Amino acid sequence: MKAHSRVTAGQSQGSPAASMLAATDVTAAGNTAHFNVSYQSDLGQQGADLAQAILQNCERDFASLQQIFGGLTPQRMPIVVHITSGSGGASHLGCLGTAISVGGNTDGGVDFIRSLLVMEVTEVFMANFGRGWNCAASPGEGLSRVIANDLYKGVEPGDFISSNQWLNLEDRINYVDRSDPTDTNYDSIGCSVLFLNWLRFQLNHTWADIVAASGATLANTYKNLTGKVSAWADFTAFLNAHFPGSQWYDLDSDNPFPV
Question: What is the pTM assigned to this prediction?
Answer without folding.
Answer: 0.91
